[in-house]
Amino acid sequence: MSATTNEPGGDGWLALPLPDADIRYAQAWLRKDEADAWFERLLHDIPWERHRLKLFGREVDCPRLSCWIGDPGAAYVYSQTRFEPHPWTPALQSLRERVQASCGASFNSVLANLYRNGEDSMGWHSDDEPELGPQPVIASLSLGVERRFRLRRKSLREAKAKPLGLPLAHGSLLYVAGDTQSHYQHDLPKLAGLSGARINLTFRFIHGSAQRRP
Ligand SMILES: O=C(O)CCC(=O)C(=O)O
Ligand SMILES: [Fe+2]
């Protein structure tokens, strides 16, 4: 699989001017009415779960609901926990095909996250697990209330102190590829007083152990 044959470009895509990164943003990837319908459908169809996180030897609840969906065998290891995928629903399967066509990449899984209100969040991390390969291509679809996605460089102290904020709009698609995960971390901070919900789908390609090189 090549991630670079038919990358998103042209009308509707904005490339972020970040060194050592390949991040592109399509603000109105879905029409408003489509985005509204997807939000309602996914909110009800996805079997939302509360994942647990191992933090300094303790187990804590993740501050959001999640669900790992994918092809059989596309297991995901996160915080020392292995998640077997839930099967694709026909609706999510059609969405996957549309995202693949738009990104020129294949995805065999998706991590769905539900931020129920401004209290839900995701801490700083890179999506750099070995099973994602050295230059993961990730497509991130946002639905629901706008939340601020932040990026910061891993290495430079000054850059670490000053993250770049990117509000992710309802119906937007963010394409993240190249060396982005090696050089940057991202998060989704809490937003005090916010009552609306947001769904985020990050489409990924998990390389199975059979495909992984030693
Ligand atoms: O909710 C978001 O926009 C970020 C999600 C994310 O970083 C992830 O699922 O790894
Ligand atoms: Fe992430």
TrEMBL record:
<feature type="domain" description="Fe2OG dioxygenase">
    <location>
        <begin position="106"/>
        <end position="207"/>
    </location>
</feature>
<protein>
    <submittedName>
        <fullName>Alpha-ketoglutarate-dependent dioxygenase AlkB</fullName>
    </submittedName>
</protein>
<dbReference type="GO" id="GO:0051213">
    <property type="term" value="F:dioxygenase activity"/>
</dbReference>
<keyword id="KW-0560">Oxidoreductase</keyword>
<dbReference type="InterPro" id="IPR037151">
    <property type="entry name" value="AlkB-like_sf"/>
</dbReference>
<dbReference type="InterPro" id="IPR032854">
    <property type="entry name" value="ALKBH3"/>
</dbReference>
<keyword id="KW-0223">Dioxygenase</keyword>
<dbReference type="InterPro" id="IPR005123">
    <property type="entry name" value="Oxoglu/Fe-dep_dioxygenase_dom"/>
</dbReference>
<dbReference type="InterPro" id="IPR027450">
    <property type="entry name" value="AlkB-like"/>
</dbReference>
<dbReference type="Pfam" id="PF13532">
    <property type="entry name" value="2OG-FeII_Oxy_2"/>
</dbReference>
